[in-house]
Amino acid sequence: MSCSERNRGGGEEEEERRHEQPVLPRSVEMDPNSVSRNGSITAPQLTIDENLLVDPKLLFIGSKIGEGAHGKVYQGRYGDRIVAVKVLHRGSTYEERASLENRFAREVNMMSRVKHENLVKFIGACKDPLMVIVTELLPGMSLRRYLVGIRPGKLDLHVAVKFAIDIARAMECLHANGIIHRDLKPDNLLLTANQKSVKLADFGLAREETVTEMMTAETGTYRWMAPELYSTVTLRQGEKKHYNNKVDVYSFGIVLWELLTNRMPFEGMSNLQAAYAAAFKQERPSMPENISPDLAFIIQSCWVEDPNLRPSFSQIVRMLNSFLFTLSPAPPSLDSDANDAAASNENDSMNDLSARTRGKFAFIRQLFTARKTKNPQ
């Protein structure tokens, strides 16, 4: 299933990830393939549709352009097309290989299912002799590298908000298809060649909300992870998953804060210190004094402690578009009467949307105001 495409209006941190420990719910029957050689239970093996596979004879791998926890990314060529080639690790033991092959199949199946102008385009995959995912190659850099490159400067406000809308639309598409990304951060956001748009990449930690296996907590990168992911309590078999797609909304709030401040979240803290501060002390990055109240409200709504109070990405897109409209200059007038009437109607519509949105989340603003008064940052 694909989402409708719409017209739009390097890292400094230390990478620390937790190992996933899939839990098999009681409702899932054991498959012979799910029992390892030593008798332990592993996740049922996933498969990849043959139509998604590329011809390895037409694939050429060039120079390395990136590296992550689960593989390396190279510039390459598939036929006559320049592409990005992600080569995933195979693992050294039987159990590790089975787990990584499952991760690979899951990532391929999800990437092939969703299409959006702000998602990196999936081209195909290859299982042998290497586990490879082929996508479009964006000649631009990661958002992390771009932000680091312009420090101590900041993005123009129009640019920052448009980037945020791109990201929110990509996430809106994923959530509409039942996919939780779980690793939303500037390193996984890539700029287009003209540096005017952003696309979301790396589905390595993504999961479907409807999968029968238990979703594992403590995944992703600490500075951007939602507090509910830090649970140290092992889930019992068959117990309902204890987080949902609102973990991505929290991460988006941190990314939006970065776009507006061009600073590292939880500056001066190690990754573990940042995790402890967010999860157990309910701390958040400090809000700049000169930030727009509307943008501050959106950020605070996204990273509020209770996931149920966080907005959806559809609501976030509407709020950001409403704010962007207030920044945009009026279009050139050809027919002043017609244009004035159209502008008046559009303005009334946007103001009505803004009023409804603010009313819906007014209690969140009061919550943060009370917290700030009690515990000033």
From TrEMBL:
Annotated SUPFAM superfamilies: Protein kinase-like (PK-like)
Catalyzed reactions: L-threonyl-[protein] + ATP = O-phospho-L-threonyl-[protein] + ADP + H(+); L-seryl-[protein] + ATP = O-phospho-L-seryl-[protein] + ADP + H(+)
Molecular function GO terms recorded: ATP binding; protein serine/threonine kinase activity
Limits of the Protein kinase domain: 59-324
Residues in the signal sequence: none
UniProt key word Nucleus: no
UniProt KW DNA repair keyword: no
Keyword terms: ATP-binding, Kinase, Nucleotide-binding, Serine/threonine-protein kinase, Transferase
Top-level taxon in the UniProt lineage: Eukaryota
Region Disordered, annotated ranges: 1-41
Residues holding ATP: 86
Biased composition (Basic and acidic residues): 1-21
InterPro entries registered for this protein in UniProt: Kinase-like_dom_sf, Prot_kinase_dom, Protein_kinase_ATP_BS, Ser-Thr/Tyr_kinase_cat_dom, Ser/Thr_kinase_AS, Ser/Thr_Kinases-Pseudokinases
Annotated protein name in UniProt: Serine/threonine-protein kinase HT1
Source organism of this protein record: Morus notabilis
